[in-house]
Design a protein that fits this description.
This protein is an alpha+beta fold. Helices cover 32% and strands 24% of the residues. It contains five helices and five strands. A five-stranded antiparallel sheet has the order 2-1-3-4-5. 33% of the residues are buried.
Length: 180
């Protein structure tokens, strides 16, 4: 996991939140709201389970093309359609990292651009058959075979993968969890 790279010990929580988009909500507002809801839900889960009080790190990543959020595909056909839309185009990947402790919350947004080469129908089929698509925003994972389709990346590799380490380290330093 990327978080282990920073050398901070952690436990994993799986709070349940509603990730439905609000009508008229911009992609930036959406990713911010979801990341912050995950963090608050994590703090609530710690209290509910009567676990020792600890700060919570949460993140959410979205793919945006033409100002539309491209979520996780529900089916292989959804994944094929998403990859076809991204083929030969540049899209944004936004990841917001949120750090929350009792009475305090802080977030940082990582904005990145990814350009895919033009993908043939066969390439899309082969990629979807690999099984990497179904649990990833936009239907691809940069940490997998899809990296071979990226002709240009502007921004943070780890931000596209789902946890921007620079921004996360900044938050950890701010809260005294990493040396400055």
């Amino acid at each position: 996991m990327l978080a282990e790279t920073l050398g901070v010990a952690f436990d994993t929580l799986t709070p349940d939140i509603n990730e439905c988009r609000i009508d008229g909500e911009s992609p930036r507002d959406y990713v911010a709201r979801i990341s912050e809801q995950k963090a608050w839900a994590g703090l609530t889960q710690i209290k509910r389970l009567q676990l020792p009080s600890k700060p919570v790190l949460a993140a959410d990543t979205i793919v945006v093309l033409d100002n539309q959020i491209i979520g996780k595909p529900a089916t292989k056909q959804d994944a094929r359609n998403m990859l076809a839309m991204l083929s030969g185009r540049t899209h944004a990947v936004l990841t917001q990292v949120t750090f929350a402790s009792e009475g305090s919350i802080r977030s940082i947004l990582s904005c990145n651009e990814v350009t895919f080469c033009v993908l043939s129908i066969q390439e899309i089929e082969r990629y979807v058959a690999r099984g990497e698509s179904l649990d990833k925003a936009g239907g691809y994972g940069l940490q997998g075979f899809a990296a071979s389709y990226v002709s240009h990346l502007s921004g943070s590799y780890t931000g596209v993968v789902g946890l921007p380490l620079f921004e996360t380290a900044c938050l950890f330093r701010e809260f005294g969890l990493l040396p400055i």
